[in-house]
């Protein structure tokens, strides 16, 4: 019997986001809410959004093409391709089959995998499937490609500023620079109606905002506790937030993530023995008997543990929020946009040998806390260098006024399932190499064109 392939993990990472955004300060004024509600209260600066020329297929086509170009990967090298998304435009045909258009011209049709859906967790489920495939008897030595992408739009109201859009592609294989820690996943799944999309004619979810936050925090508590138990057994030592160099979260909005770091510190406090609490947490006597399930919205507890964890947040989590604060919630790709942000915000020596924790959450609900180790190698340098485009590209986007943003969302809502349909949105600001929807015929078949030019390549690789 052969042994497991070594160091299975992420070999290449690519991200895309829309070329237009709305400014959250301007949106506060436009929506008539108090100044600071979106920018300070939610921690959001800008929100990326699409017009009617982009859909989940076009986003995924673009991000897969960009990754393969940038890393000079031949279609023949891909043995599994899997998409995680909750942006459903067809109840039967997967996005993965649409992506096959990038492979068929090269005679490549032998690629496993389809789509996976459960709110923002689909990308992580697809990633776990890809890891399992590489570690299984079905593996044929080729790479797996995981795509997480979504268009996150909400009806007008308090949830709207927590929208966003993006897609991340991840190349999975052995001898990777970002290696998944084996046997270390804490999972929590349960039935909840916190956020769901029962109206298949609309892009908008039904959302119970407060319940969704409570579910997120409950899932975080459970996953983290389980992860710690497993890690402590494996490593024979206690595991706390100090055990990680980076702590990354699914990011519906940045403020929730800051509170989540506080939540992990609260979990560490709760499991500390009574005598150690006295010495390690002076002045915290009032919280001695705090129960996790009673404290989701306890302001005193929240404030105390936000303070305790501030340094940890600044060092280990804030660097992962670059894309989230500038683009918004990208649903399935949110956590992996966090991984991209973490890598572009640090230099090589700061990244090497990092142990990074990741918390993935999808409403409904599905969640997992797991970890990876960043291994020093030339492949790590390549992966990092190939993300040099991210910061400049964020700045290359154009700002759209809130009035136009609102009109664009109305156009999307009204055209979502219209046939036949000829999109009308402006494509002049799309980045080179962007796929876009050119028409939908009377049989709901979608057709795509591409903006000429190569993607913002940093290494001059071409795709042939
Ligand atoms: N200056 C500074 N802060 C302010 C201001 C201001 N002028 N006004 C309000 N705030 C603060 C509030 O105090 C609040 O802070 P808190 O969270 O510490 O209490 C925060 O801004 C948000 O204000 P609320 O009044 O609580 O916001 P509201 O209830 O209107 O909406 C919510 C927030 C529920 C998150 C909403 O945007 C939503 O439903 N979003 C979608 C659901 C979501 O993202 N859930 C998270 C997990 S599930 C998922 O990923 C989809």
Which sequence of strands runs across the widest sheet? Answer: 5-4-6-7-1-8-13-12-11
CATH class: Alpha Beta
Question: Within the CATH hierarchy, at the fold level, what is the topology?
Answer: Peroxisomal Thiolase, Chain A, domain 1
CATH architecture: 3-Layer(aba) Sandwich
Distinctive features:
binds acetyl coenzyme *A; alpha/beta; Peroxisomal Thiolase, Chain A, domain 1; three-stranded mixed β-sheet; single chain; 16 strands; nine-stranded mixed β-sheet
Report on the architecture of this protein.
- The chain is α/β, with parallel strands linked by helices and 464 residues long.
- 36% of the residues lie in helices and 20% in strands.
- Helix 6 crosses helix 7 (254-271), helix 7 packs across helix 9 and helix 7 crosses helix 10.
- The radius of gyration is 22 Å and the shape is globular.
- Acetyl coenzyme *A binds at residues 34-37, 40-42, 120, 158-159, 162, 195, 207, 209, 212-213, 216, 252-253, 256, 329, 363.
How do the helices and strands line up, and which of them pair or pack?
Blueprint: E1 9-16, E2 20-23, H1 24-31, H2 37-41, E3 46-48, H3 56-70, E4 78-84, H4 95-99, E5 115-116, H5 122-134, E6 143-152, E7 164-173, E8 178-189, E9 195-196, E10 206-207, H6 209-235, E11 246-249, H7 254-271, H8 274-280, H9 299-308, H10 310-317, H11 322-327, H12 334-344, H13 348-351, E12 355-362, E13 366-374, H14 378-385, H15 390-396, E14 398-399, H16 402-415, E15 435-440, E16 446-450
Parallel strand pairs: 2-14, 4-5, 4-6, 11-12
Antiparallel strand pairs: 1-7, 1-8, 2-3, 6-7, 8-13, 9-10, 12-13, 15-16
Helix pairs in contact: 6-7, 7-9, 7-10
Bound molecules: acetyl coenzyme *A.
């Amino acid at each position: 019997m052969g042994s497991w392939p070594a160091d299975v993990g992420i070999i290449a990472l690519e991200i895309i986001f829309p070329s237009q955004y709305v400014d959250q300060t301007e949106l506060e004024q436009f929506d008539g809410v108090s100044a600071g509600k979106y920018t300070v209260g939610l921690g959001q600066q800008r929100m990326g959004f699409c017009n009617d020329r982009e859909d989940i297929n076009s986003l995924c086509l673009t991000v897969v093409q960009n990754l393969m170009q940038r890393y000079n990967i031949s279609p023949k090298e891909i043995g599994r391709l899997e998409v995680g998304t909750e942006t459903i435009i067809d109840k039967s045909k997967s996005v993965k089959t649409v992506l096959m258009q990038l492979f068929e011209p090269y005679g490549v049709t032998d690629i496993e995998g389809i789509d996976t859906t459960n709110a923002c967790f689909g990308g992580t489920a697809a990633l776990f499937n890809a890891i399992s495939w590489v570690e299984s008897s079905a593996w044929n030595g080729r790479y797996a490609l995981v795509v997480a992408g979504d268009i996150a739009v909400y009806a007008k109201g308090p949830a709207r500023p927590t929208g966003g859009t993006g897609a991340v592609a991840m190349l999975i294989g052995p001898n990777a620079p970002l290696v998944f820690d084996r046997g270390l996943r804490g999972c929590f799944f349960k039935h909840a109606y916190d956020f769901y999309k029962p109206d298949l004619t609309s892009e908008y979810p039904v959302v119970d905002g407060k319940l969704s936050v409570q579910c997120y925090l409950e899932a975080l508590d459970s996953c983290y506790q389980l992860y710690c138990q497993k890690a402590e057994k494996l490593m024979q030592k206690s595991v706390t937030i100090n055990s990680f160099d980076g702590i990354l979260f699914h990011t519906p909005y940045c403020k929730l993530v800051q509170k989540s770091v506080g939540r992990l510190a609260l979990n560490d406090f709760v499991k500390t023995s009574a005598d150690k609490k006295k010495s390690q947490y002076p002045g915290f006597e009032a919280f001695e008997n705090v129960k996790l399930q009673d404290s989701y919205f306890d302001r005193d507890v929240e404030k105390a543990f936000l303070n305790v964890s501030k340094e940890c947040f600044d060092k280990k989590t804030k660097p992962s929020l670059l894309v989230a604060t500038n683009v918004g919630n990208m649903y399935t790709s949110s956590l992996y946009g966090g991984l991209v942000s973490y890598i572009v915000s640090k230099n090589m020596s700061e990244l090497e040998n990092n142990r990074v924790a990741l918390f993935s959450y999808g409403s409904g609900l599905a969640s997992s806390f797991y970890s990876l180790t960043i291994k020093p190698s030339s492949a790590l340098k390549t992966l990092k260098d190939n993300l040099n485009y991210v910061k400049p590209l964020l700045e290359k986007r154009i700002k759209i006024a809130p009035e136009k943003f609102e009109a664009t969302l109305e156009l999307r809502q009204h055209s979502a399932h219209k046939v036949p349909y000829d999109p009308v949105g402006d494509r002049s600001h799309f980045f080179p190499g962007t796929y876009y929807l050119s028409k939908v015929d009377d049989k709901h078949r979608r057709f795509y064109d591409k903006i000429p030019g190569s993607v913002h390549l940093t290494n001059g690789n071409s795709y042939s």
